[in-house]
Amino acid sequence: MLALALTAELNGVTDLRPNDTEDSPFEYTFKVQCTSCRETHPNFVTLNRFEMHDLSGSRGDANFVWKCKNCKREHSATIQAAPASYPQSDPPKKQNILEFDCRGLEFTEFKSEGEFLATGAESKTKFTGIDLADGEWFDYDEKEGAEVSITNVKWEIRRA
Ligand SMILES: [Zn+2]
């Protein structure tokens, strides 16, 4: 099992999470590598946890299916559960957000594209449309009369 882990400094907000529902699935974007021949897919690939693709030869299905162009083997990955929320803590703690069952492939890099959500730590203000592509986000919590931010966003793929 592989996991996507997050470390981030949350200031005034907590429960950072991808906006990932059946009506609005989050597209997780990764670099992917074949564990048989070590070929890396030239492009970033996306998968979401609601879309299933058939494996060849009636071997079931998976969220992501990839036939390696180099060794011609078919590999797959499936997201195990809904993403975990990342809580505010000081100092920030590394936490797994998503876990995958990977067969014959590894995700090697995560690209943070898509909408994230967070909640005001005290005010419970709902923040939507959070973009972490630049590794940081700044906003203003009207209820608290204070700036809120997410900075030093670090994504890591590790063994779960
Ligand atoms: Zn291969």
Automatic annotation (TrEMBL):
This is DUF866-domain-containing protein. The keyword Metal-binding applies. Signal peptide: none annotated. Pfam families: CXXC_Zn-b_euk. PANTHER family: CXXC MOTIF CONTAINING ZINC BINDING PROTEIN. Belongs to the UPF0587 family. Keywords: Metal-binding, Zinc. GO terms for molecular function: zinc ion binding.
